[in-house]
What does this fold into?
Amino acid sequence: TPDACRFISESELRFLRENVPKRGEAGKRAAGASSESNWLGMPPRLLLQPGLWAVFLAHIAFNFGAYYMTNWNPTYYAEVLHVAPSDAKLHLMMPHIANLASKSLNPTLVAEVDRRGFSLLTSRRLFTAAGFAGATLAMVPVHRFRFASPWVSTILFSIANACFGLAPSGFKSNYLDITVSYVGVISGYGNTLGTVASWVGPQLVAFILQRVQSWDVVLAVVGLVNVLAAVNYVRNATVTPIESSSARSEGHAKTQ
It folds into this structure.
């Protein structure tokens, strides 16, 4: 137990005593939550909360856009830029290196935003919107530079993937804000929807290329999905647990 731990500090023990419910209280709380849950793992009314779908739709758009590059860049370099696979390896690596560098900077950037006095909700919106908007601005014009050096396309793809590295500090972190009792369930739903998008995305790109035969249209579709997800997130994101929001809405309705 924490009380028997020889290296735990007094402040840590005090935090646990104040914030972690005792075993009996935790059981009652879980029983109360499960009584209104069903096979969905949570009350259906909570699934209708706009703040929840702001996160889900951002996750779908993120997987569609970020994995577009992973799945289709090898084809793009070979068929459009005419770069042989043996020569494209560095070009294909650079976006992922940029993404890793961006993610490494995220803790510093989040701390700086917090230091400047921005609220948690503003921070979530800022990183999500900046990530999607930056990726869109960098990715959409790529095909226009197909006759330039392949490094121009590589730089643009790298900027886009670096921006995709910023977005999770917004909407993915938001999974921990929007619920107290159903974090695992909601994260499971979000990851499932994101995985579906990762599968549907390449099929959609293949369909567009077969019917329209235009990489400009493909990139425009990816950009449009990013923009719509960012706008929806900025409008509907919340850091208030959906259980609390739903309870307040029901209480307000009863007073009408």
